[in-house]
């Protein structure tokens, strides 16, 4: 069934057609995105791309009330407003079906804390058990320190509907006052897929998943067979993105419409914010203390939609683009007309988004390109045609056999400088073998795109990261046309062919401690064929066996053969508190309260940005010998404490 669906839909480059579309956009950090195509009459035709949180992690269809607070990897609360325009358009297509709705097994939908035995280990979602660190302001500075046990839920049944199954619901607050909430009866179906990353836990006495969990992924594919192929990792913020789509040959040449919907959680302005849409508290019995006191009210500006009209008969390389969105959604999710575009007032002078600026409208969720546009569709007409690339070329890579290393740094690696500084190269025997194969493979007339050679995986060199990061090493592929991307997919089930590559694999994430979190891993495409590329894969789980597949794709949306590798991540290794050498010498102990305040300043405000990380790396290289000298002189220690006092006082007041 799956293979037939891929062949029939010909989506996301799974089959080459005479026309190839390139969708170009530059998202803001943490943007959730849906791209789809409609005909000239506005009828939905196909989804091109859907970010992983919606397509794979199920944030639109999971247990918990839709108004429930949010936070870092928050596990509960169906986000009906994440990408509602796309969701309604897809559901409106002829023959389209709704997904089964997921609810709590036994809890009321507004209860975030456990009230019954319903939990099992969660490999992705977690809860922050420090209320002060679960706020919007701390979103970029926390992580899941320990494994969380969550309720994966069950399907809503007709019996639930007949009995008036509800979620607590509170209307928007007029003039800052909270209206009385009510119990909103919910329908049987959902516009969004359930989470596909959950497998039912059946360890007797330690987990209590409902049998419906076994069907989540299968049922999502039954409703939307192309879901695996169109799922994309969250793209890195402020990095230009391009997505290829081969136009199915069954589509007649002519006019079409490309749409992109973008949502960023917690994007406040003076109209859409936590005062207008606060944490709900009524009906009081339906919201527990955890739901009211942890996390943050996430409903800022709703999703925006950009729309571009294009014609597949256009000249090769012609581009169609737009700057301003055509409308937005809202938070009135139970209104019968919800999902229709609402008008909005915005002009090109509005430069605000992802901020609390009162002038903001969210338009900058898509950044402007060099020509001042935010969303573009470029057409390649005719097999083998050459498309001009208006983007500036990437930096030329040194043609030596040294690895092209994608940097990933973190506080635990800081004492060794950047990851690139600490990255080990192959040993002598391995290096010799690679040198013998360094020449590009002989061209194969039957393949326009060559195979990625010498693909291998190894434990990450940072022992404090090897449970969640791994090193990938390979040789660049040969291609007749310029390469568009290297597609790297990671799975916990075997990847052995194209079907399992798409069905089981998820796009690899980068290994980073940046505030934005792990986003799509992007490998350089301008490396000469046969030269080494090395990168760190992140967002993995400890003690887990992974299968990795890699293939190259050219700008004509033609794929090269797949290459495969496997690795098992290590157990988590713990270390002593990351050092503040000089401050520890000044105050006599790394556990001093003043040192802790400075460590908070480092972790919260320096490490999340590139300039701060560079400063910390320099400090770790120079700090140890300086600290040893200062520790031996009481006078210097006293002077240093006096000098640090204002900085410590500032750090202690920072959130």
Describe the structure.
It contains 14 helices and 27 strands. The protein is α+β, with helices and mostly antiparallel strands and 655 residues long. The chain has 3 domains: 2-381, no CATH class; 404-568, Immunoglobulins (Immunoglobulin-like, Sandwich); 581-653, no CATH class. Helix 12 (593-606) packs across helix 14. The chain is globular, with a radius of gyration of 26 Å. It starts with a helix and ends with a helix.
- Widest sheet: strand order? 12-3-2-14-15-17
Biggest β-sheet, characterized? Answer: 6 strands, mixed
Content-based structural category: alpha+beta
* Oligomer state of the chains in this structure: single chain
**C-alpha geometry:** globular
Helix amount: 10-25%
Number of strand elements: 27
Number of helices: 14
Measured on Cα atoms, how large is the radius of gyration? 26 Å
Percent in strands: 15-25%
Task: Kindly report how far apart the N and C termini lie.
Answer: 53 Å
Overall structural domain count: 3
Overall mean pLDDT stands at: 82
Low-confidence regions: 1-17, 348-359, 384-403, 407-443
SSE map:
Elements: H1 2-9, E1 19-25, E2 32-39, E3 44-51, H2 52-55, H3 84-92, E4 99-100, E5 102-103, E6 120-122, E7 148-150, E8 154-155, H4 158-162, E9 166-169, E10 182-185, E11 189-190, H5 216-223, H6 227-230, E12 231-232, E13 241-246, E14 255-263, H7 289-293, E15 304-311, E16 319-322, E17 327-328, E18 375-381, E19 404-405, H8 419-422, H9 428-436, E20 453-459, E21 470-475, E22 483-491, H10 498-504, E23 506-507, E24 509-510, E25 532-538, E26 545-554, E27 563-568, H11 581-587, H12 593-606, H13 610-631, H14 634-653
Parallel strand pairs: 3-12, 19-25
Antiparallel strand pairs: 1-13, 1-18, 2-3, 2-14, 4-11, 5-8, 6-7, 9-10, 14-15, 15-17, 16-18, 20-21, 21-25, 22-23, 22-26, 24-25, 26-27
